[in-house]
């Protein structure tokens, strides 16, 4: 089945065309809304041109959409119809930047190819198994009932994909352990018997780890303090989402630059690595408890897969759990899932590359396959 995977942003559209593990085409249309690409329909025409050139006389069988927020309703990928599209739209207040873009992408496909099966794959869905003690914030119930304020968690498609990959590598039926997805956004998830039981991102993707430009955990009173000092809502949003994290600490959000600067003796860069690795190590300790004893710690995404020095910094703080990296294995560059700890380590430390497009394509093919009567 040939699947077009779409990740719609407000001004960009990222796509990949896959047939199983084969990537047939991929690309990115940017600056939607400007003269050359006035809207998502125009972006889709461009994608159609590029995809048709790559596919020749073969055609797309289905479209899979990455949707950031599935709220409390969506715990699995679903076949999209008008009602589902409206349900995603009703979640716009919870993801004001992302969900409207996804809805725009879905409607552009519906207009262009009315009979095309479309599937929504939600970033939050994997975390629908969180127990209430993990998703509840300690605030009055009214905030949950009135506004849906609770922990949702994100990066679920990646965490689920990596949990399956880790189980496979370990020869286990299901995965129990801790997964650190460390990209520009970063989150860590506690997985027990293949189910998410806690995760560091919360009501929004701002909570938890130190990220490229996001602060992660912070005392909420700091916001009240800054409001009293004259900061506006927009100032706080920009401060915490765009100017904090590695960028706030070290001046750049790119872990490669941070590592190089630290190696060259830059104290701010070293401090950024110390703060970020300490924060993650604390979460790993907590989630080791949450899963009832991890069977593995897994690193994934850009930093998790490539930044050996950062992995060393994290695992170096986990001596109390008995973890020990094999520095030769840790330093090897590879795109394969692999073990990077010593035999003596209390449980293995793994690198398992993530592939969200593959996961979305796989889910899309499964949903569409199940919805079509056998021939
Ligand atoms: P996104 O969340 O945008 O998908 P990625 O998963 O691609 O992000 O991760 C981006 C991060 O990975 C950046 O901080 C980048 O510097 C880091 N990264 C990629 N390759 C390396 C490397 N070889 N060494 C250190 N960091 C790396």
UniProtKB/TrEMBL annotation:
<keyword id="KW-0963">Cytoplasm</keyword>
<feature type="binding site">
    <location>
        <begin position="181"/>
        <end position="185"/>
    </location>
    <ligand>
        <name>ATP</name>
    </ligand>
</feature>
<dbReference type="InterPro" id="IPR000890">
    <property type="entry name" value="Aliphatic_acid_kin_short-chain"/>
</dbReference>
<feature type="binding site">
    <location>
        <begin position="254"/>
        <end position="256"/>
    </location>
    <ligand>
        <name>ATP</name>
    </ligand>
</feature>
<dbReference type="Pfam" id="PF00871">
    <property type="entry name" value="Acetate_kinase"/>
</dbReference>
<feature type="binding site">
    <location>
        <position position="66"/>
    </location>
    <ligand>
        <name>substrate</name>
    </ligand>
</feature>
<keyword id="KW-0418">Kinase</keyword>
<dbReference type="GO" id="GO:0005524">
    <property type="term" value="F:ATP binding"/>
</dbReference>
<dbReference type="GO" id="GO:0000287">
    <property type="term" value="F:magnesium ion binding"/>
</dbReference>
<dbReference type="GO" id="GO:0006085">
    <property type="term" value="P:acetyl-CoA biosynthetic process"/>
</dbReference>
<feature type="binding site">
    <location>
        <position position="7"/>
    </location>
    <ligand>
        <name>Mg(2+)</name>
    </ligand>
</feature>
<feature type="binding site">
    <location>
        <position position="356"/>
    </location>
    <ligand>
        <name>Mg(2+)</name>
    </ligand>
</feature>
<dbReference type="InterPro" id="IPR004372">
    <property type="entry name" value="Ac/propionate_kinase"/>
</dbReference>
<dbReference type="InterPro" id="IPR023865">
    <property type="entry name" value="Aliphatic_acid_kinase_CS"/>
</dbReference>
<protein>
    <recommendedName>
        <fullName>Acetate kinase</fullName>
        <ecNumber>2.7.2.1</ecNumber>
    </recommendedName>
</protein>
<keyword id="KW-0808">Transferase</keyword>
<dbReference type="InterPro" id="IPR043129">
    <property type="entry name" value="ATPase_NBD"/>
</dbReference>
<comment type="similarity">
    <text>Belongs to the acetokinase family.</text>
</comment>
<dbReference type="GO" id="GO:0008776">
    <property type="term" value="F:acetate kinase activity"/>
</dbReference>
<feature type="binding site">
    <location>
        <position position="14"/>
    </location>
    <ligand>
        <name>ATP</name>
    </ligand>
</feature>
<keyword id="KW-0460">Magnesium</keyword>
<comment type="function">
    <text>Catalyzes the formation of acetyl phosphate from acetate and ATP. Can also catalyze the reverse reaction.</text>
</comment>
<feature type="binding site">
    <location>
        <begin position="302"/>
        <end position="306"/>
    </location>
    <ligand>
        <name>ATP</name>
    </ligand>
</feature>
<dbReference type="GO" id="GO:0005737">
    <property type="term" value="C:cytoplasm"/>
</dbReference>
<comment type="pathway">
    <text>Metabolic intermediate biosynthesis; acetyl-CoA biosynthesis; acetyl-CoA from acetate: step 1/2.</text>
</comment>
<keyword id="KW-0547">Nucleotide-binding</keyword>
<feature type="site" description="Transition state stabilizer">
    <location>
        <position position="214"/>
    </location>
</feature>
<dbReference type="GO" id="GO:0006083">
    <property type="term" value="P:acetate metabolic process"/>
</dbReference>
<feature type="active site" description="Proton donor/acceptor">
    <location>
        <position position="123"/>
    </location>
</feature>
<comment type="subunit">
    <text>Homodimer.</text>
</comment>
<feature type="site" description="Transition state stabilizer">
    <location>
        <position position="155"/>
    </location>
</feature>
<keyword id="KW-0479">Metal-binding</keyword>
<keyword id="KW-0067">ATP-binding</keyword>
């Amino acid at each position: 089945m040939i699947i077009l995977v779409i990740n719609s942003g407000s001004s960009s559209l990222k796509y990949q065309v896959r047939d199983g593990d084969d990537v047939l085409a991929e690309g990115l249309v940017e600056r939607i809304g400007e003269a050359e690409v006035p809207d998502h329909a125009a972006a889709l025409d461009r994608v159609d041109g590029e995809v048709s050139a790559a596919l020749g006389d073969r055609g797309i069988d289905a479209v899979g959409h990455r949707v950031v927020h599935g709220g409390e309703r969506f715990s699995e990928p679903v076949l999209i119809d008008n009602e589902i599209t409206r349900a995603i739209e009703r979640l716009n207040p919870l993801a004001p930047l992302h969900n409207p873009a996804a809805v725009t992408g879905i409607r552009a496909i519906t207009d262009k190819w009315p009979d095309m099966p479309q599937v929504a794959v939600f970033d939050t869905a994997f975390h629908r198994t969180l127990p209430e003690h993990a998703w509840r914030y300690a605030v009055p119930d009214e905030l949950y009932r009135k506004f849906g304020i609770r922990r949702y968690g994100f990066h679920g498609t990646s965490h689920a994909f990596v949990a399956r990959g880790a189980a496979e590598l370990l020869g286990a039926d299901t995965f129990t352990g801790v997964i650190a997805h460390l990209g520009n956004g970063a989150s860590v998830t506690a997985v027990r018997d293949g189910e998410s039981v806690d995760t560091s991102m919360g009501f929004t993707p701002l909570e938890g780890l130190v990220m490229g430009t996001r602060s992660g955990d912070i005392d909420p009173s700091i916001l009240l303090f800054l409001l009293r000092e004259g900061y506006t809502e927009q100032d706080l949003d920009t401060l915490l989402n765009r100017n904090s994290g590695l960028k706030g600490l070290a001046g750049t959000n790119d872990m490669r630059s941070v590592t190089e600067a630290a190696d060259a003796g830059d104290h701010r860069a070293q401090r950024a690595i110390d703060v970020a690795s300490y924060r993650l190590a604390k979460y790993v300790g907590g989630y080791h408890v949450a899963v009832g004893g991890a069977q593995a710690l897994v690193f994934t995404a850009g930093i998790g897969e490539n930044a050996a020095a950062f992995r060393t910094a994290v695992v170096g703080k986990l001596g109390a759990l008995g973890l020990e990296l094999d520095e030769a294995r840790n330093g090897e560059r590879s795109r394969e899932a692999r073990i990077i700890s010593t035999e003596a380590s209390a449980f293995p430390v793994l690198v398992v590359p993530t592939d969200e497009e593959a996961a979305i394509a796989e889910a899309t093919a499964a949903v569409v396959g199940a919805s079509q009567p056998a021939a």
